[in-house]
Design goal:
The complex is a heterodimer of chains A (about 270) and B (about 350). Chain A has a single domain, classed as Rossmann fold (3-Layer(aba) Sandwich). Chain A is of the alpha/beta class and about 270 residues long. The mean pLDDT of chain A is about 90. Chain A is built from seven helices and 15 strands. In chain A, helix 2 packs antiparallel against helix 5 and helix 3 packs across helix 4. Chain B contains ten helices and 18 strands. Chain B has two domains: about 190 residues, Rossmann fold; about 130 residues, Rossmann fold. Chain B has a seven-stranded parallel beta sheet, with helices on both faces. A five-stranded parallel beta sheet of chain B has the order 15-14-16-17-18. Chain B has a three-stranded antiparallel beta sheet with strand order 8-9-10. The radius of gyration of chain B is 24 Å and the shape is elongated. The chains are: A alpha/beta (about 270), B alpha/beta (about 350). Chains A and B meet through helix 3, helix 4, strand 9, strand 10 and strand 11 of A and helix 4, helix 5, strand 7, strand 9 and strand 10 of B. Strand 14 of chain A pairs antiparallel with strand 10 of chain B, so a sheet runs across the interface.
Chain lengths: ~270, ~350
Protein backbone atom coordinates (compact mmCIF):
# COMPACT_ATOMS: atom_id res chain seq x y z
CA UNK A 1 0.00 0.00 0.00
CA UNK A 2 1.29 3.46 -0.82
CA UNK A 3 0.37 6.02 1.81
CA UNK A 4 1.31 9.68 1.76
CA UNK A 5 1.32 11.89 4.83
CA UNK A 6 1.01 15.68 4.76
CA UNK A 7 3.03 17.24 7.57
CA UNK A 8 3.63 20.78 8.75
CA UNK A 9 6.41 22.37 10.71
CA UNK A 10 4.85 24.53 13.41
CA UNK A 11 6.01 26.69 16.30
CA UNK A 12 5.35 24.97 19.60
CA UNK A 13 2.44 27.22 20.53
CA UNK A 14 2.48 26.17 24.18
CA UNK A 15 5.94 27.76 24.38
CA UNK A 16 5.17 30.98 22.50
CA UNK A 17 5.60 34.13 24.55
CA UNK A 18 4.05 37.53 24.04
CA UNK A 19 6.15 40.66 24.09
CA UNK A 20 4.26 42.54 26.81
CA UNK A 21 5.43 45.93 25.49
CA UNK A 22 4.37 45.60 21.89
CA UNK A 23 1.68 42.92 22.33
CA UNK A 24 3.15 40.93 19.50
CA UNK A 25 4.32 37.35 19.30
CA UNK A 26 7.90 36.64 20.11
CA UNK A 27 8.32 33.85 17.58
CA UNK A 28 11.95 33.33 18.47
CA UNK A 29 10.76 32.14 21.88
CA UNK A 30 9.13 29.03 20.44
CA UNK A 31 11.00 26.02 19.11
CA UNK A 32 9.67 24.47 15.89
CA UNK A 33 8.24 20.96 15.98
CA UNK A 34 6.34 18.57 13.73
CA UNK A 35 2.65 19.34 14.15
CA UNK A 36 1.69 16.84 16.89
CA UNK A 37 -1.37 15.49 15.04
CA UNK A 38 0.76 14.93 11.92
CA UNK A 39 3.15 12.78 13.97
CA UNK A 40 0.23 10.43 14.72
CA UNK A 41 -0.65 10.40 11.01
CA UNK A 42 2.92 9.31 10.18
CA UNK A 43 2.79 6.65 12.90
CA UNK A 44 -0.44 5.25 11.42
CA UNK A 45 1.02 5.19 7.90
CA UNK A 46 4.11 3.35 9.15
CA UNK A 47 1.88 0.87 11.00
CA UNK A 48 0.02 0.16 7.75
CA UNK A 49 3.29 -0.35 5.90
CA UNK A 50 4.37 -2.88 8.53
CA UNK A 51 1.09 -4.76 8.13
CA UNK A 52 0.59 -4.67 4.37
CA UNK A 53 3.96 -3.71 2.94
CA UNK A 54 4.40 -0.82 0.55
CA UNK A 55 5.77 2.63 1.10
CA UNK A 56 5.22 5.80 3.12
CA UNK A 57 5.82 9.14 1.39
CA UNK A 58 5.86 12.51 3.13
CA UNK A 59 4.95 15.90 1.72
CA UNK A 60 5.31 19.27 3.38
CA UNK A 61 5.02 22.86 2.29
CA UNK A 62 7.21 25.41 3.98
CA UNK A 63 10.55 27.21 4.05
CA UNK A 64 13.78 25.24 3.41
CA UNK A 65 14.19 24.58 7.15
CA UNK A 66 10.97 22.50 7.05
CA UNK A 67 13.38 19.76 5.86
CA UNK A 68 13.73 19.05 9.55
CA UNK A 69 10.18 17.74 9.94
CA UNK A 70 10.63 15.49 6.91
CA UNK A 71 13.77 14.09 8.53
CA UNK A 72 11.72 13.51 11.67
CA UNK A 73 9.24 11.47 9.59
CA UNK A 74 12.06 9.40 8.05
CA UNK A 75 13.19 8.73 11.61
CA UNK A 76 9.66 7.52 12.38
CA UNK A 77 9.82 5.06 9.49
CA UNK A 78 8.76 6.96 6.36
CA UNK A 79 10.57 6.13 3.12
CA UNK A 80 10.77 9.35 1.15
CA UNK A 81 9.91 13.02 1.47
CA UNK A 82 9.00 15.94 -0.76
CA UNK A 83 9.31 19.54 0.34
CA UNK A 84 7.31 22.14 -1.60
CA UNK A 85 9.22 25.33 -1.08
CA UNK A 86 9.08 28.54 -3.06
CA UNK A 87 8.77 32.24 -2.28
CA UNK A 88 5.65 32.25 -4.46
CA UNK A 89 3.90 30.10 -1.82
CA UNK A 90 4.38 32.67 0.95
CA UNK A 91 1.21 34.20 2.36
CA UNK A 92 -0.98 31.28 1.28
CA UNK A 93 -4.20 30.82 3.22
CA UNK A 94 -5.82 27.39 3.61
CA UNK A 95 -7.44 27.44 0.14
CA UNK A 96 -4.16 28.18 -1.57
CA UNK A 97 -2.19 25.78 0.66
CA UNK A 98 -4.53 22.91 -0.19
CA UNK A 99 -4.08 23.76 -3.88
CA UNK A 100 -0.28 23.67 -3.69
CA UNK A 101 -0.21 20.43 -1.70
CA UNK A 102 -2.77 18.80 -4.00
CA UNK A 103 -0.72 19.69 -7.09
CA UNK A 104 2.40 18.27 -5.46
CA UNK A 105 0.53 15.09 -4.49
CA UNK A 106 -0.80 14.75 -8.06
CA UNK A 107 2.74 14.71 -9.40
CA UNK A 108 3.69 11.96 -6.91
CA UNK A 109 0.51 9.98 -7.72
CA UNK A 110 1.15 10.09 -11.47
CA UNK A 111 4.33 8.12 -10.94
CA UNK A 112 3.14 6.00 -8.05
CA UNK A 113 -0.60 5.74 -7.26
CA UNK A 114 -1.58 6.51 -3.65
CA UNK A 115 -4.07 4.47 -1.60
CA UNK A 116 -4.42 6.78 1.40
CA UNK A 117 -3.49 10.39 2.02
CA UNK A 118 -3.10 11.06 5.74
CA UNK A 119 -3.15 14.43 7.53
CA UNK A 120 -3.31 15.49 11.17
CA UNK A 121 -6.80 16.72 12.08
CA UNK A 122 -5.45 20.27 12.22
CA UNK A 123 -2.19 22.17 12.79
CA UNK A 124 -1.65 23.71 16.20
CA UNK A 125 -0.56 27.12 14.87
CA UNK A 126 -3.61 27.81 12.70
CA UNK A 127 -6.08 25.33 14.24
CA UNK A 128 -8.29 25.53 11.14
CA UNK A 129 -8.68 21.85 10.10
CA UNK A 130 -9.35 23.11 6.57
CA UNK A 131 -6.37 21.92 4.56
CA UNK A 132 -7.24 18.20 4.83
CA UNK A 133 -10.76 18.55 3.38
CA UNK A 134 -9.34 21.02 0.85
CA UNK A 135 -6.82 18.49 -0.48
CA UNK A 136 -9.44 15.71 -0.57
CA UNK A 137 -11.75 17.95 -2.55
CA UNK A 138 -9.08 18.85 -5.07
CA UNK A 139 -7.93 15.25 -5.50
CA UNK A 140 -11.54 14.05 -5.79
CA UNK A 141 -11.07 11.62 -2.88
CA UNK A 142 -13.59 10.90 -0.11
CA UNK A 143 -12.60 12.80 3.05
CA UNK A 144 -12.71 11.14 6.46
CA UNK A 145 -11.84 13.66 9.14
CA UNK A 146 -11.29 13.34 12.93
CA UNK A 147 -10.55 9.63 12.66
CA UNK A 148 -9.97 7.96 16.04
CA UNK A 149 -9.38 4.38 14.90
CA UNK A 150 -8.99 2.32 11.75
CA UNK A 151 -11.05 -0.81 12.30
CA UNK A 152 -10.16 -2.87 9.21
CA UNK A 153 -9.07 -2.96 5.61
CA UNK A 154 -10.66 -5.17 2.98
CA UNK A 155 -8.16 -5.00 0.18
CA UNK A 156 -10.18 -7.31 -2.08
CA UNK A 157 -13.06 -4.86 -2.07
CA UNK A 158 -10.65 -1.96 -1.71
CA UNK A 159 -12.39 -0.46 1.34
CA UNK A 160 -11.44 0.77 4.79
CA UNK A 161 -13.70 0.84 7.88
CA UNK A 162 -12.89 3.45 10.49
CA UNK A 163 -14.20 5.42 13.47
CA UNK A 164 -14.84 9.11 12.94
CA UNK A 165 -15.37 11.33 15.97
CA UNK A 166 -18.71 13.08 16.31
CA UNK A 167 -20.30 15.03 19.15
CA UNK A 168 -20.56 12.67 22.12
CA UNK A 169 -19.41 9.52 20.33
CA UNK A 170 -18.20 8.25 17.00
CA UNK A 171 -19.55 6.96 13.72
CA UNK A 172 -18.36 3.82 12.00
CA UNK A 173 -17.76 4.70 8.35
CA UNK A 174 -16.79 2.60 5.38
CA UNK A 175 -14.96 4.22 2.51
CA UNK A 176 -13.55 3.15 -0.82
CA UNK A 177 -9.83 3.63 -1.37
CA UNK A 178 -8.16 5.88 -2.31
CA UNK A 179 -9.31 8.31 0.37
CA UNK A 180 -8.00 11.08 2.60
CA UNK A 181 -7.97 10.55 6.37
CA UNK A 182 -7.27 13.19 9.03
CA UNK A 183 -6.39 11.77 12.42
CA UNK A 184 -6.99 12.46 16.10
CA UNK A 185 -4.25 11.66 18.62
CA UNK A 186 -6.26 8.68 19.89
CA UNK A 187 -5.58 6.74 16.74
CA UNK A 188 -2.28 5.38 18.06
CA UNK A 189 0.58 5.75 20.52
CA UNK A 190 3.80 7.12 19.12
CA UNK A 191 6.56 4.51 19.21
CA UNK A 192 10.27 4.98 19.64
CA UNK A 193 12.35 5.15 16.49
CA UNK A 194 14.98 2.47 15.99
CA UNK A 195 18.58 3.64 15.78
CA UNK A 196 18.89 2.60 12.13
CA UNK A 197 16.08 5.01 11.22
CA UNK A 198 17.82 7.79 13.11
CA UNK A 199 21.01 7.24 11.15
CA UNK A 200 19.06 7.18 7.89
CA UNK A 201 17.23 10.37 8.85
CA UNK A 202 20.41 12.21 9.77
CA UNK A 203 21.78 11.62 6.27
CA UNK A 204 18.46 12.06 4.46
CA UNK A 205 17.85 14.89 2.06
CA UNK A 206 14.31 15.29 0.78
CA UNK A 207 13.29 16.12 -2.76
CA UNK A 208 12.61 19.86 -3.01
CA UNK A 209 10.12 21.23 -5.51
CA UNK A 210 9.54 24.86 -6.44
CA UNK A 211 6.85 26.29 -8.72
CA UNK A 212 8.65 25.13 -11.86
CA UNK A 213 8.86 21.53 -10.72
CA UNK A 214 5.16 20.73 -10.76
CA UNK A 215 2.11 21.96 -12.57
CA UNK A 216 0.57 25.03 -10.96
CA UNK A 217 -1.61 27.98 -11.81
CA UNK A 218 0.12 31.10 -10.52
CA UNK A 219 -3.17 32.84 -9.78
CA UNK A 220 -3.97 30.19 -7.16
CA UNK A 221 -0.72 30.55 -5.20
CA UNK A 222 0.32 32.65 -2.25
CA UNK A 223 -1.38 35.94 -1.44
CA UNK A 224 -2.96 36.16 -4.88
CA UNK A 225 -4.62 32.78 -4.52
CA UNK A 226 -5.87 33.45 -1.00
CA UNK A 227 -9.41 34.81 -0.61
CA UNK A 228 -8.90 35.60 3.07
CA UNK A 229 -6.64 38.24 4.52
CA UNK A 230 -5.85 39.44 8.00
CA UNK A 231 -7.45 42.82 8.66
CA UNK A 232 -6.17 43.31 12.18
CA UNK A 233 -4.13 41.60 14.90
CA UNK A 234 -4.88 42.50 18.49
CA UNK A 235 -4.30 41.24 22.00
CA UNK A 236 -7.17 39.18 23.38
CA UNK A 237 -9.72 40.99 25.53
CA UNK A 238 -9.14 40.50 29.21
CA UNK A 239 -11.90 39.67 31.59
CA UNK A 240 -12.18 42.20 34.38
CA UNK A 241 -9.88 41.09 37.16
CA UNK A 242 -11.09 40.06 40.57
CA UNK A 243 -9.82 39.73 44.07
CA UNK A 244 -6.51 38.37 45.23
CA UNK A 245 -7.03 36.43 48.45
CA UNK A 246 -4.15 37.05 50.83
CA UNK A 247 -3.04 35.22 53.95
CA UNK A 248 -1.69 31.88 55.08
CA UNK A 249 -2.71 28.75 53.19
CA UNK A 250 -5.34 27.92 55.81
CA UNK A 251 -6.68 31.46 55.85
CA UNK A 252 -7.09 31.76 52.08
CA UNK A 253 -8.82 28.41 51.88
CA UNK A 254 -11.31 29.48 54.56
CA UNK A 255 -11.80 32.83 52.83
CA UNK A 256 -12.51 31.20 49.50
CA UNK A 257 -15.04 28.74 50.87
CA UNK A 258 -16.77 31.57 52.75
CA UNK A 259 -17.00 33.56 49.51
CA UNK A 260 -18.58 30.64 47.68
CA UNK A 261 -21.04 29.73 50.42
CA UNK A 262 -24.52 31.04 50.02
CA UNK A 263 -24.22 30.86 46.27
CA UNK A 264 -22.82 28.30 43.94
CA UNK A 265 -22.12 25.62 46.53
CA UNK A 266 -25.77 25.36 47.53
CA UNK A 267 -26.85 25.35 43.89
CA UNK A 268 -24.94 22.19 43.27
CA UNK A 269 -26.63 20.04 45.91
CA UNK B 1 -14.90 42.29 -8.77
CA UNK B 2 -17.55 44.31 -6.92
CA UNK B 3 -20.28 43.12 -9.30
CA UNK B 4 -19.86 39.51 -8.29
CA UNK B 5 -19.95 40.51 -4.66
CA UNK B 6 -23.19 42.47 -5.04
CA UNK B 7 -25.04 39.51 -6.52
CA UNK B 8 -24.85 37.79 -3.16
CA UNK B 9 -27.25 38.62 -0.36
CA UNK B 10 -28.44 37.19 2.94
CA UNK B 11 -26.97 35.25 5.83
CA UNK B 12 -27.22 31.47 5.85
CA UNK B 13 -26.87 28.94 8.63
CA UNK B 14 -26.21 25.24 8.08
CA UNK B 15 -28.60 23.14 10.16
CA UNK B 16 -26.74 20.38 11.94
CA UNK B 17 -28.85 17.43 13.04
CA UNK B 18 -28.36 13.77 13.75
CA UNK B 19 -31.36 11.59 12.96
CA UNK B 20 -33.73 14.46 13.56
CA UNK B 21 -32.05 15.72 16.75
CA UNK B 22 -31.00 19.32 16.23
CA UNK B 23 -27.53 20.45 17.38
CA UNK B 24 -27.96 23.47 19.67
CA UNK B 25 -25.10 25.30 17.96
CA UNK B 26 -27.45 25.75 14.99
CA UNK B 27 -29.84 27.84 17.10
CA UNK B 28 -26.95 29.87 18.56
CA UNK B 29 -25.83 30.59 15.00
CA UNK B 30 -29.32 31.63 13.90
CA UNK B 31 -29.22 34.20 16.72
CA UNK B 32 -25.85 35.47 15.54
CA UNK B 33 -26.97 35.44 11.89
CA UNK B 34 -29.95 37.58 12.90
CA UNK B 35 -27.59 40.17 14.37
CA UNK B 36 -25.42 40.25 11.23
CA UNK B 37 -28.46 40.27 8.92
CA UNK B 38 -30.02 43.23 10.68
CA UNK B 39 -26.84 45.32 10.27
CA UNK B 40 -26.82 44.43 6.58
CA UNK B 41 -30.58 44.76 6.28
CA UNK B 42 -30.94 41.29 4.77
CA UNK B 43 -32.63 38.02 5.72
CA UNK B 44 -31.59 34.88 7.58
CA UNK B 45 -31.98 31.52 5.89
CA UNK B 46 -31.20 28.02 7.06
CA UNK B 47 -30.26 24.95 5.05
CA UNK B 48 -31.70 21.69 6.30
CA UNK B 49 -30.50 18.43 4.75
CA UNK B 50 -31.63 15.05 6.05
CA UNK B 51 -34.24 12.32 5.92
CA UNK B 52 -37.63 12.92 7.55
CA UNK B 53 -36.49 16.13 9.17
CA UNK B 54 -39.56 18.32 8.46
CA UNK B 55 -40.30 18.40 12.21
CA UNK B 56 -37.27 20.63 12.76
CA UNK B 57 -38.61 23.45 10.55
CA UNK B 58 -40.87 25.18 13.15
CA UNK B 59 -37.95 25.39 15.63
CA UNK B 60 -35.74 27.07 13.03
CA UNK B 61 -38.43 29.66 12.32
CA UNK B 62 -39.14 30.27 16.01
CA UNK B 63 -35.47 30.98 16.69
CA UNK B 64 -35.21 33.52 13.89
CA UNK B 65 -34.91 31.96 10.42
CA UNK B 66 -36.83 33.83 7.71
CA UNK B 67 -36.47 31.03 5.17
CA UNK B 68 -35.76 27.31 5.46
CA UNK B 69 -34.31 25.54 2.44
CA UNK B 70 -34.88 21.84 2.86
CA UNK B 71 -33.80 18.78 0.90
CA UNK B 72 -35.35 15.69 2.44
CA UNK B 73 -33.98 12.47 0.98
CA UNK B 74 -32.76 9.08 2.34
CA UNK B 75 -29.33 9.77 0.85
CA UNK B 76 -28.93 12.57 3.45
CA UNK B 77 -29.90 10.38 6.43
CA UNK B 78 -26.40 10.61 7.92
CA UNK B 79 -23.99 13.42 7.29
CA UNK B 80 -21.44 12.57 4.61
CA UNK B 81 -19.14 15.10 3.02
CA UNK B 82 -19.70 13.75 -0.47
CA UNK B 83 -23.50 14.09 -0.38
CA UNK B 84 -23.86 17.23 1.77
CA UNK B 85 -21.15 19.12 -0.09
CA UNK B 86 -22.86 18.58 -3.43
CA UNK B 87 -26.32 19.60 -2.22
CA UNK B 88 -25.05 22.55 -0.23
CA UNK B 89 -22.97 23.97 -3.09
CA UNK B 90 -25.95 23.52 -5.42
CA UNK B 91 -28.12 25.67 -3.12
CA UNK B 92 -25.41 28.31 -2.62
CA UNK B 93 -24.87 28.66 -6.35
CA UNK B 94 -28.60 28.92 -6.94
CA UNK B 95 -29.54 31.39 -4.17
CA UNK B 96 -26.20 33.17 -3.59
CA UNK B 97 -25.94 34.06 0.10
CA UNK B 98 -23.26 36.57 1.10
CA UNK B 99 -22.45 34.96 4.47
CA UNK B 100 -22.49 31.30 5.43
CA UNK B 101 -22.21 30.12 9.04
CA UNK B 102 -21.67 26.60 10.33
CA UNK B 103 -21.01 25.11 13.76
CA UNK B 104 -17.35 24.32 14.40
CA UNK B 105 -18.19 20.72 15.23
CA UNK B 106 -16.57 17.74 13.51
CA UNK B 107 -19.52 17.78 11.09
CA UNK B 108 -19.58 21.54 10.48
CA UNK B 109 -15.83 21.88 10.04
CA UNK B 110 -15.72 18.86 7.74
CA UNK B 111 -18.45 20.32 5.53
CA UNK B 112 -17.14 23.90 5.66
CA UNK B 113 -13.69 22.89 4.40
CA UNK B 114 -15.16 20.93 1.51
CA UNK B 115 -17.67 23.65 0.55
CA UNK B 116 -15.13 26.49 0.70
CA UNK B 117 -12.71 24.56 -1.52
CA UNK B 118 -15.42 23.68 -4.03
CA UNK B 119 -16.68 27.27 -4.19
CA UNK B 120 -13.10 28.66 -4.06
CA UNK B 121 -13.99 31.09 -1.31
CA UNK B 122 -12.62 32.17 2.06
CA UNK B 123 -13.37 30.34 5.28
CA UNK B 124 -12.45 31.39 8.82
CA UNK B 125 -12.55 28.62 11.42
CA UNK B 126 -13.61 28.74 15.06
CA UNK B 127 -14.54 32.42 15.21
CA UNK B 128 -15.16 33.91 18.64
CA UNK B 129 -16.70 37.16 17.35
CA UNK B 130 -18.52 38.09 14.15
CA UNK B 131 -19.21 41.67 13.10
CA UNK B 132 -19.99 43.66 9.99
CA UNK B 133 -17.83 46.41 8.52
CA UNK B 134 -20.79 48.70 7.82
CA UNK B 135 -18.98 50.83 5.31
CA UNK B 136 -17.73 47.97 3.13
CA UNK B 137 -20.54 45.58 4.09
CA UNK B 138 -18.14 42.73 4.74
CA UNK B 139 -17.89 40.16 7.49
CA UNK B 140 -15.26 40.71 10.16
CA UNK B 141 -14.45 37.26 11.52
CA UNK B 142 -12.30 37.30 14.64
CA UNK B 143 -10.55 34.27 16.05
CA UNK B 144 -7.62 33.38 18.24
CA UNK B 145 -4.42 32.49 16.37
CA UNK B 146 -1.09 30.93 17.29
CA UNK B 147 -2.54 28.80 19.99
CA UNK B 148 -4.66 31.70 21.16
CA UNK B 149 -1.72 33.94 21.95
CA UNK B 150 -3.18 36.67 19.73
CA UNK B 151 -6.51 37.50 18.12
CA UNK B 152 -6.87 38.09 14.39
CA UNK B 153 -9.72 39.61 12.42
CA UNK B 154 -10.01 37.89 9.05
CA UNK B 155 -11.84 39.28 6.02
CA UNK B 156 -12.78 37.79 2.66
CA UNK B 157 -13.11 40.83 0.42
CA UNK B 158 -13.65 39.65 -3.12
CA UNK B 159 -15.12 36.17 -2.87
CA UNK B 160 -18.59 35.03 -1.87
CA UNK B 161 -20.01 33.58 0.22
CA UNK B 162 -17.91 34.67 3.18
CA UNK B 163 -17.73 31.55 5.32
CA UNK B 164 -17.15 31.13 9.04
CA UNK B 165 -17.45 28.38 11.63
CA UNK B 166 -18.23 29.03 15.30
CA UNK B 167 -17.95 26.58 18.19
CA UNK B 168 -20.88 25.51 20.31
CA UNK B 169 -21.55 27.73 23.37
CA UNK B 170 -19.58 30.70 22.01
CA UNK B 171 -22.64 32.64 20.81
CA UNK B 172 -25.69 33.25 22.99
CA UNK B 173 -28.82 31.19 22.54
CA UNK B 174 -31.54 33.47 21.11
CA UNK B 175 -34.99 33.70 22.71
CA UNK B 176 -37.54 31.82 20.61
CA UNK B 177 -40.80 33.41 19.47
CA UNK B 178 -43.50 30.80 18.90
CA UNK B 179 -45.49 33.23 16.72
CA UNK B 180 -42.77 33.61 14.12
CA UNK B 181 -43.42 32.18 10.68
CA UNK B 182 -41.36 32.05 7.54
CA UNK B 183 -40.93 30.60 4.09
CA UNK B 184 -40.13 26.95 3.47
CA UNK B 185 -38.45 26.16 0.16
CA UNK B 186 -38.41 22.45 -0.73
CA UNK B 187 -35.59 21.56 -3.08
CA UNK B 188 -34.34 18.41 -4.77
CA UNK B 189 -30.82 17.21 -5.43
CA UNK B 190 -30.27 13.92 -7.21
CA UNK B 191 -27.52 11.59 -6.08
CA UNK B 192 -27.58 7.83 -6.55
CA UNK B 193 -26.57 5.90 -3.44
CA UNK B 194 -24.73 3.44 -5.74
CA UNK B 195 -22.45 6.19 -7.01
CA UNK B 196 -21.21 7.06 -3.51
CA UNK B 197 -17.92 5.93 -2.03
CA UNK B 198 -18.66 6.36 1.67
CA UNK B 199 -21.27 4.79 3.92
CA UNK B 200 -22.03 5.38 7.61
CA UNK B 201 -22.46 1.91 9.13
CA UNK B 202 -23.50 2.93 12.63
CA UNK B 203 -23.36 5.61 15.31
CA UNK B 204 -21.84 4.77 18.68
CA UNK B 205 -22.63 7.11 21.57
CA UNK B 206 -20.41 7.64 24.59
CA UNK B 207 -21.87 6.38 27.85
CA UNK B 208 -24.51 8.71 29.28
CA UNK B 209 -22.88 8.50 32.73
CA UNK B 210 -20.21 10.93 31.60
CA UNK B 211 -21.39 14.46 32.24
CA UNK B 212 -20.32 16.43 29.23
CA UNK B 213 -17.65 18.99 30.00
CA UNK B 214 -19.47 21.66 28.04
CA UNK B 215 -22.64 21.15 30.11
CA UNK B 216 -20.98 20.91 33.55
CA UNK B 217 -21.93 23.38 36.29
CA UNK B 218 -18.57 23.03 38.02
CA UNK B 219 -15.30 22.41 36.18
CA UNK B 220 -12.02 21.73 37.98
CA UNK B 221 -9.18 22.18 35.52
CA UNK B 222 -5.49 21.50 35.96
CA UNK B 223 -2.53 22.86 34.04
CA UNK B 224 1.19 22.22 33.98
CA UNK B 225 1.31 23.45 37.58
CA UNK B 226 -0.36 20.27 38.85
CA UNK B 227 2.97 18.67 37.94
CA UNK B 228 2.35 14.96 38.42
CA UNK B 229 0.01 12.07 39.11
CA UNK B 230 -0.43 13.26 42.70
CA UNK B 231 -1.61 16.64 41.46
CA UNK B 232 -3.99 14.96 39.02
CA UNK B 233 -5.50 12.91 41.85
CA UNK B 234 -6.06 16.06 43.91
CA UNK B 235 -7.86 17.70 40.98
CA UNK B 236 -10.03 14.61 40.57
CA UNK B 237 -10.84 14.53 44.27
CA UNK B 238 -11.82 18.20 44.36
CA UNK B 239 -14.07 17.64 41.34
CA UNK B 240 -15.63 14.63 43.05
CA UNK B 241 -16.26 16.46 46.32
CA UNK B 242 -17.94 19.33 44.47
CA UNK B 243 -19.85 17.13 42.03
CA UNK B 244 -17.93 18.73 39.17
CA UNK B 245 -16.09 17.56 36.08
CA UNK B 246 -12.32 17.46 35.50
CA UNK B 247 -10.85 19.59 32.75
CA UNK B 248 -7.36 20.66 31.73
CA UNK B 249 -5.27 23.09 29.76
CA UNK B 250 -3.33 22.20 26.64
CA UNK B 251 -0.15 22.24 28.72
CA UNK B 252 -1.49 19.50 31.00
CA UNK B 253 -2.75 17.50 28.02
CA UNK B 254 0.62 17.73 26.25
CA UNK B 255 2.26 16.44 29.44
CA UNK B 256 -0.24 13.54 29.43
CA UNK B 257 -1.58 14.57 32.84
CA UNK B 258 -5.12 15.13 31.58
CA UNK B 259 -6.91 13.25 28.79
CA UNK B 260 -7.15 15.38 25.65
CA UNK B 261 -10.92 14.92 25.53
CA UNK B 262 -11.04 17.02 28.69
CA UNK B 263 -9.07 19.91 27.24
CA UNK B 264 -10.67 23.32 27.69
CA UNK B 265 -9.74 25.98 25.17
CA UNK B 266 -9.44 26.84 21.53
CA UNK B 267 -8.42 23.33 20.49
CA UNK B 268 -10.53 21.65 23.15
CA UNK B 269 -13.98 22.36 24.50
CA UNK B 270 -15.74 25.59 25.29
CA UNK B 271 -17.28 25.52 28.78
CA UNK B 272 -19.65 27.87 30.57
CA UNK B 273 -19.95 26.61 34.15
CA UNK B 274 -21.06 28.50 37.23
CA UNK B 275 -17.74 27.76 38.86
CA UNK B 276 -14.41 27.23 37.09
CA UNK B 277 -11.24 26.23 38.93
CA UNK B 278 -8.00 26.97 37.07
CA UNK B 279 -5.33 25.17 39.03
CA UNK B 280 -1.74 25.61 37.98
CA UNK B 281 -2.89 27.11 34.69
CA UNK B 282 -1.02 30.19 33.50
CA UNK B 283 -3.92 31.26 31.29
CA UNK B 284 -2.70 31.41 27.68
CA UNK B 285 -5.48 32.76 25.52
CA UNK B 286 -5.67 29.34 23.88
CA UNK B 287 -7.13 28.23 27.22
CA UNK B 288 -9.04 31.29 28.39
CA UNK B 289 -11.12 31.63 25.20
CA UNK B 290 -12.66 28.32 26.16
CA UNK B 291 -13.94 29.55 29.54
CA UNK B 292 -15.11 33.10 28.87
CA UNK B 293 -18.66 32.09 29.74
CA UNK B 294 -17.80 30.97 33.29
CA UNK B 295 -19.64 32.84 36.04
CA UNK B 296 -16.99 32.60 38.73
CA UNK B 297 -13.35 31.73 38.12
CA UNK B 298 -10.95 30.64 40.85
CA UNK B 299 -7.25 30.55 40.05
CA UNK B 300 -4.50 28.97 42.11
CA UNK B 301 -0.99 29.61 40.87
CA UNK B 302 2.52 30.24 42.14
CA UNK B 303 2.90 33.18 39.75
CA UNK B 304 0.74 36.15 40.79
CA UNK B 305 1.53 37.88 37.48
CA UNK B 306 0.25 35.17 35.13
CA UNK B 307 -2.81 36.02 32.98
CA UNK B 308 -5.08 33.49 34.68
CA UNK B 309 -4.66 35.25 38.05
CA UNK B 310 -5.53 38.56 36.43
CA UNK B 311 -8.86 37.40 35.01
CA UNK B 312 -9.97 35.19 37.90
CA UNK B 313 -12.79 36.29 40.20
CA UNK B 314 -10.76 35.02 43.16
CA UNK B 315 -7.09 34.20 42.95
CA UNK B 316 -4.78 32.51 45.40
CA UNK B 317 -1.00 32.67 45.17
CA UNK B 318 0.63 29.45 46.23
CA UNK B 319 1.57 25.86 45.57
CA UNK B 320 -1.53 24.03 44.35
CA UNK B 321 -0.25 20.71 45.69
CA UNK B 322 -0.27 22.16 49.23
CA UNK B 323 -3.46 24.21 48.95
CA UNK B 324 -5.64 21.57 47.28
CA UNK B 325 -5.69 19.06 50.17
CA UNK B 326 -6.76 21.85 52.56
CA UNK B 327 -9.37 23.06 50.13
CA UNK B 328 -10.78 19.57 49.68
CA UNK B 329 -11.03 19.13 53.49
CA UNK B 330 -12.79 22.46 54.04
CA UNK B 331 -15.20 21.89 51.14
CA UNK B 332 -16.04 18.44 52.48
CA UNK B 333 -16.87 19.91 55.88
CA UNK B 334 -18.92 22.83 54.67
CA UNK B 335 -20.79 20.75 52.11
CA UNK B 336 -21.80 18.23 54.75
CA UNK B 337 -22.97 21.14 56.95
CA UNK B 338 -25.12 22.40 54.09
CA UNK B 339 -26.45 18.92 53.44
CA UNK B 340 -27.37 18.43 57.11
CA UNK B 341 -29.14 21.75 57.11
CA UNK B 342 -31.13 20.82 54.01
CA UNK B 343 -31.92 17.43 55.46
CA UNK B 344 -33.33 19.06 58.59
CA UNK B 345 -35.38 21.47 56.48
CA UNK B 346 -36.78 18.73 54.29
CA UNK B 347 -37.62 16.65 57.39
CA UNK B 348 -39.49 19.66 58.74
CA UNK B 349 -41.43 19.88 55.47
CA UNK B 350 -42.35 16.23 55.68
CA UNK B 351 -43.77 16.70 59.14
CA UNK B 352 -45.78 19.60 57.83
CA UNK B 353 -47.28 17.46 55.11
CA UNK B 354 -48.25 14.79 57.58
CA UNK B 355 -50.15 17.24 59.84
CA UNK B 356 -52.14 18.61 56.95
CA UNK B 357 -53.29 15.15 55.99
Amino acid sequence: MHTLVCVKQVPDTTEIKMDPKTNTLDRSSAPTIINPYDAHAVEEAVKIKKQFGGKVSIISMGPPQAQEVIKKCIEMGADEGYLLSDRAFAGSDTLSTSYILAMGIKKIMDKDPIDIVFCGKQAIDGDTAQVGPGIACRLGMPQLTYVEAIESFDLKRNVVVLHRKIDNGYEVVQSKLPCLITVEKDINELSFSPLTNMIKAARYKSVSWGINDFESDLSQLGLKGSPTSVRRIFPPAQRAGGELLKGSEDEVVQMLVAKLKGGILECQI
Amino acid sequence: MPNIVEEYSGVWVFVEQLEGKLATVTLELIGEAKKLASSLNVQVSTVLLGEKVEAIIPTLLEYGADTVYIIDDPVFHFYRAETYKGAFCYLVEKYKPEILLMGATTTGRDLAGAVATTLKTGLTADCTALNIDLEKKILLASRPAFGGNIMATIVCKDHRPQMATVRPKVMKMPIPDSNRTGIVVREKFDIEEESLRTMVLKIVKDGAENVKLEDAKIVVSGGRGIQNEHGVNLIKELAKVLGGVVGGSRGAVEKNLIDHKRQVGQTGQTVSPKLYFAIGISGAVQHTVGLQGSETIIAINTDPECPMMKIATYSIVGDALKILPKLIEVFKQSLSEIKNLELRNSNADMKGVVTVE
